[in-house]
Amino acid sequence: MIFKRSPRGTAPVEPVTLKILVAGGFGVGKTTLVGAVSEIKPLRTEETLSEAGRPVDDLNGVPGKHTTTVAMDFGRITLREDLVLYLFGTPGQDRFWFLWDELATGALGAVVLADTRRLEDCFAAVDYFERRSIPFVVGVNCFEGATRYPAEEVRQALDLDPGTPVVLCDAREKESVKEVLIDVVEHAMAVGAAAREPVTT
Question: Is this structure's pTM higher than 0.90?
Fold first, then answer.
């Protein structure tokens, strides 16, 4: 585990700030995740679902959803005194994907939230980060009443690389979300370290 508290008596250090994206399909829990863990009041750009959007906003599997993110969610969490994460939640619907490139600029890594009842909804996010070589972790949001599958089964269903972490989580619970974010940082650091390894022939 790389996250250790600094020894007492040491001088304060300027924190390192890292950008993490939270992506996934419509209604998978991205806004909830950012809100659950943010130490500041999260910035939300939610609008009420309208009749005009009904033909393009598929509410199957999310019958109680009445709002949608139209730009981004933003939050901040201090993992330790010298490490701060800025969280950017992406909009889930296809028509807002033009915002993803802007949000992804400078990101260390990402969380792709998945709902096993609608697993296909996260395919686009997985493809997006794979194509851009942005390290990501798949967080399976364990909704009440949803069948829980082992992480390895979810990995196979998503056809992920063996090194891509898959973790079960509850987007409503702060400690659960923190563990996912720690996994993202550690995975991104490992990927970065591997990329810097000299190639031997």
Answer: no
